[in-house]
């Protein structure tokens, strides 16, 4: 019996070590990518000066690159890709390396940043990477200190402000609506998302704003959702 328990323990320990090393590999990939693309991460990131644009550099690594997202004061600082086919970036990094950390992605049939609602998915990793820090928005105090989301798209940094934080059932798809037939339909969507927020936020976006929805797992049958609206762009 002791030999059986010892064998089971050793197998479990080996699996745990392999998993931890796998997470480390992904974290190293993204850390090296960040250092190669950006000069710093203070209040805002700035591209390194080189002969290619930031987008060209990132698209050379992965043609599926769409934009870069950063939430100052959190671990969220990653490229976002458009999925090649269903589920691909759930198990592949930005470098297309097979890894359970995956990548931040939008669905393969989703529209890009525009007048609708861009939905970005990412894992809630136990090592604190990817979208793990979204769960901190369960605290209203955390929201007050981290209400801005920065998006780098087509050579400009855009600032978005969070207007809704939700914990929803995994079968509730209302927050994932991406397109709107009219301005009134989009206005109703925003009002509905505000009502579903677990606490009141200071932002009420007008229907002309571009909306962004960040989604990750919360437990086995729920989703943590953070929604923001683009309010301006920086001069960087």
From TrEMBL:
GO terms for molecular function: hydrolase activity. InterPro entries: Sortase (IPR005754), Sortase_dom-sf (IPR023365), SrtB (IPR009835). This is SrtB family sortase. Keywords: Hydrolase. It holds the Pfam family Sortase. The active site is at residues 123, 217. The lineage of its organism: Bacteria, Bacillati, Bacillota, Clostridia, Lachnospirales. The keyword Hydrolase applies.
């Amino acid at each position: 019996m002791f030999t059986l328990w010892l064998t089971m323990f050793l197998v479990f320990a080996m699996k745990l070590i392999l998993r931890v090393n796998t997470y480390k590999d992904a974290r190293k990939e993204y850390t090296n990518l960040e250092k190669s693309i950006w000069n710093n991460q203070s209040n805002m990131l700035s591209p390194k000066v080189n002969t290619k644009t930031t987008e060209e550099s990132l698209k050379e690594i992965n043609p599926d690159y769409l934009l870069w997202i950063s939430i100052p004061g959190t671990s969220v600082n990653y490229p976002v890709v458009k999925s090649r086919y269903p589920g691909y970036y759930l198990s592949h990094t930005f470098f297309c390396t097979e890894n359970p950390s995956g990548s931040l992605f939008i669905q393969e049939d989703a529209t890009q940043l525009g007048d609708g609602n861009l939905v970005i998915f990412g894992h809630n990793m136990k090592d604190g990477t990817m979208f793990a820090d979204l769960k901190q928005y369960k605290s209203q105090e955390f929201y007050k200190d981290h209400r801005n989301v920065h998006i780098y798209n087509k050579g400009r940094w855009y600032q978005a402000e969070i207007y809704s934080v939700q914990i929803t059932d995994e079968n509730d798809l209302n927050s994932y609506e991406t397109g709107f037939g009219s301005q009134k339909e989009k206005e109703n969507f925003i009002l509905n998302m505000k009502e579903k927020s677990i606490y009141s936020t200071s932002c009420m976006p007008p229907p002309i704003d571009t909306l962004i929805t960040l989604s990750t797992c919360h437990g086995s049958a729920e989703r943590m959702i953070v929604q923001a609206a683009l309010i301006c762009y920086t001069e960087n």
